[in-house]
């Protein structure tokens, strides 16, 4: 995949090196509003061409994808423009400055059938897959509370956009992307948030927030520019906890690590190798890699940060109202598993790892997505054109979900669409919906919608180990 770079900011230098050292990736052009600056960066980093103006780069035939390294206020504009030119989009976080803009990027990329991802590297490190996995979840017991803190002491350059509110500046959309994204990764979508901030230069300089999730799970987060470097989290259940002191990026010259603790305080250290940016780029550039889970993480983080901003403005606890994606976005391979499949409709990646383990133990495939799979049993299923880049032998395998599991906490809004015709597309599937016992109305609505098996979260949790056998 041939990349063009939009922007020559601080983050560009590191990402260009990661791009150039990733197998199958080339950096063919870099654009700036100043042609001399573009030419200087091109010569400095061994890039073939410096380009004057971002629009000119989008029109080039030697660019397949763009990396957007511009201020947040420009992300939506140029992500949409890139998609309309048929370019895949890798965007520096945040994806946009509002949830509405983020959903616009998502919708246009889906319409133009290009891939998109925000460049949050920690999600792709091998360490993340491990601490999100079944083994660690078992050590936690039932999830109860999460804490995260991300700060860097005045990391500014001259004219830094992070101190300009009109450019999307402030710690909320910057460091808050990590601090808020962490509990969403583990616990799914929050119900409500409350936040306070220290304001300087007209932007949030340090922010502290409380987050409330289903099943009485809570989280506290802190981020800021006036505190020493921190990038840690703790995830605590009723049986144990996980602690990581560098989750956003491993400390220099140290291997990536985290610790698990049991109730007695006994600790176990876990260490990992790997380059998270290269892992992210490999996932982004392989057409068979399904990005839907990461895209949903992005959209949920953006929506939660918008609610936090609202709380800062009105001084009140604010509900987080999530908007569902307009259409599902999956690669052709992700939609055509070779075996009978457990399909999990949710944004809860942590619990998804438990369902995956139970499914695989029963010899079943596992898929997790934000919406219903396309296609029907015995037919090819694809949302992308069958061009040479996307051709795989998997296209000839048929889609056959045997379990369709709906998480009412994160995907309860789908219930009105799950009529008999929708469910009958998958005649071999048993439909199951689950949610917190306190969400009585959603559990009732699932039963009224004709879902065969409706359970509380605790009931589902107890039945899961043997459910698919």
TrEMBL record:
Residues 1-115 form the Gfo/Idh/MocA-like oxidoreductase N-terminal domain. GO terms for molecular function: 1,5-anhydro-D-fructose reductase (1,5-anhydro-D-mannitol-forming) activity; nucleotide binding. Residues 136-243 form the GFO/IDH/MocA-like oxidoreductase domain. Pfam families: GFO_IDH_MocA, GFO_IDH_MocA_C3. Keywords: Oxidoreductase. Its EC number is 1.1.1.292. Residues 373-395 are annotated as: Disordered. InterPro entries: Gfo/Idh/MocA-like_OxRdtase_N, GFO_IDH_MocA-like_dom, NAD(P)-bd_dom_sf. It is an enzyme of class 1 (oxidoreductase). This is 1,5-anhydro-D-fructose reductase. It comes from Roseimaritima multifibrata.
């Amino acid at each position: 995949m041939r990349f063009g770079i939009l922007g020559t900011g601080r983050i560009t230098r590191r990402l260009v090196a990661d791009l150039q050292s990733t197998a199958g990736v080339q950096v063919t052009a870099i654009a700036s509003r100043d042609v001399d600056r573009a030419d200087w960066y091109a010569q400095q980093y061994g890039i073939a061409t410096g380009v004057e103006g971002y629009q000119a780069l989008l029109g080039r035939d030697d660019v397949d994808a763009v990396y957007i390294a511009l201020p947040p206020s420009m992300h939506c504009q140029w992500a949409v423009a890139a998609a309309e030119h048929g370019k895949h989009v890798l965007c520096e976080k945040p994806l946009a400055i509002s949830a509405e803009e983020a959903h616009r990027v998502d919708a246009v990329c889906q319409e133009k059938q290009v891939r998109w991802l925000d460049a949050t590297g920690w999600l792709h490190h091998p360490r993340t897959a491990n601490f999100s996995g079944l083994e660690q979840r078992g050590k936690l017991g039932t999830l109860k509370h999460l804490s995260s803190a991300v700060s860097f002491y005045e990391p500014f350059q001259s004219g830094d956009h992070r101190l300009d509110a009109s450019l999307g500046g402030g710690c909320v959309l910057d460091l808050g992307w990590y601090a808020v994204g962490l509990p969403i990764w583990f616990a799914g979508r929050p119900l409500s948030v409350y936040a306070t901030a220290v304001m300087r230069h007209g932007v949030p300089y340090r922010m502290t927030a409380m987050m409330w999730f289903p099943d009485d799970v809570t989280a506290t987060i802190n981020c800021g520019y006036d505190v020493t470097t921190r990038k840690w989290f703790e995830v605590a259940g009723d049986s144990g906890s996980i602690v990581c002191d560098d989750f956003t990026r491993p400390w220099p010259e140290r291997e990536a690590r985290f610790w698990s603790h049991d109730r007695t305080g006994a600790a176990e250290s876990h260490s990992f190798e790997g380059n998270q940016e290269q892992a992210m780029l490999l996932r982004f550039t392989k057409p068979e890699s399904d990005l839907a889970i990461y895209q949903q993480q992005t959209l949920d983080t953006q929506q939660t940060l918008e609610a936090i901003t609202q709380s800062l403005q009105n001084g009140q606890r604010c509900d987080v109202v999530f908007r569902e994606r307009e259409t599902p976005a999956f690669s052709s391979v992700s939609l055509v598993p070779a075996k009978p499949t457990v399909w999990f409709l949710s944004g809860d990646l942590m619990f998804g790892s438990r369902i995956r383990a139970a499914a695989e133990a029963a010899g079943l495939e596992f898929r997790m997505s934000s919406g219903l799979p396309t296609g029907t049993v015995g037919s090819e299923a694809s949302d992308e054109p069958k061009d040479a880049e996307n051709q795989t032998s998997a296209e000839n395998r048929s889609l056959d979900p045997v379990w369709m599991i709906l998480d009412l906490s994160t995907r309860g809004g789908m219930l009105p669409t799950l009529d008999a015709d929708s469910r009958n597309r998958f005649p071999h599937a048993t439909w199951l919906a689950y949610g917190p016992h306190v969400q009585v109305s959603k559990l009732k609505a699932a039963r009224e919608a004709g879902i065969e098996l409706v359970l509380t979260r605790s009931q589902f949790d107890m039945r899961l180990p043997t459910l698919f056998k």
